[in-house]
């Protein structure tokens, strides 16, 4: 008697309801045959070796880098060793797994027209790869020394040797290149004000030209009139008066030209100090305090004194009877200025009275009148011209000939911690206190006790009593 529900008998003799399940396909048996050791050869590594197929030589991989991405500074030797070890490990793994020769090749990427995965390269390959098997996206990097470090920038900034490592030198380093680079950077830096040879105080340069030429014209007319009266009437009184007045004026001009610098220094020292706390905007003041360097400190030219705000190096030559002149106005049997280097930058000054700190704007081409004393550093003559190689090197860097001349080098500077006096105009901008050059030259007035005529100070006045004093205030 048949039932409505189908049933079937199991292998153990029991009857169960339902239809029997269709027979399952049996998986192919895995071969247990061990693959022999390949020794790192890709061609003998089975299906895994086909991932790295290409026209390579059998044996160890080359030491060229397999990929270069953002970390382009990895060294080639180290990456070659890693690639070689990883390939050997993968090949031995492929050889040690049973049945690896019968496993199907799979791919999760795009296929070409033959059904094989498309292989691409994202960077330069090793020397064993050709352009026919892989594509390169950039040139090969230089061979770098094996350091084992991966960086995001260039390893070395200097020259390399033939193997790609840093070039070594067994002798002493030559500092002339670094000195020339520092000199060039100082000259090209816009924050540094370069003062010319005419930056020093001169009486005839500061004296009004209109007054000078008016006096010259007046004396010429007086001489002509005196000579005419002497020839017509025979009275020499006017000629004597004109000659006496001319002699007095000439002596006065010579005295002022000789004592003009000392007179200005006396005027600066006698000018009263102003407290920055009570100074008004636009007021001409004199501030005395301690110097602090700004963003661009200077270094003296010859002695290499660091952390300076003002440097001055002057070379003088003595002219004998038959020697060459140092400049067009150099007279015989005197010292003449041949070369001068004066530099000044912005700096800070802390007022002695109020303790406030102000920025002195002497950089970026500002008008500055420096009154800083220079001290003699070295004297050179025929007997000791080879005694100072540093001085000979200093002359060579500036294309100055030494010959057999008598030379004297003087240097002055204002280093950080020195006490100075600054004269300028106060300017306040958003709680920032600054001292800037005055818009017009400041007259010094007449000094009748010393028979000094009035002079003018154009720009910021910078005064330091003793720049070479080693006892500075630490800041």
From TrEMBL:
Cite the record's Low complexity compositional bias ranges: 83-94
Membrane spanning residue stretches: 210-231, 237-258
Positions with biased composition (Polar residues): 1-14, 59-82, 127-138
* Entry keyword annotation includes Cell membrane: no
Q: Quote the InterPro entries the UniProt record gives.
A: At1g16860-like (IPR040339)
Keyword set, alphabetical order:
Membrane, Transmembrane, Transmembrane helix
Enumerate the residue ranges of region (Disordered). 1-180
The answer on whether this UniProt entry bears the keyword Membrane reads yes
Question: Which PANTHER family does this chain map to?
Answer: OSJNBA0035M09.9 PROTEIN, UBIQUITIN-SPECIFIC PROTEASE FAMILY C19-RELATED PROTEIN
Protein name, entry field = Ubiquitin-specific protease family C19-related protein
* UniProt source species: Deinandra increscens subsp. villosa
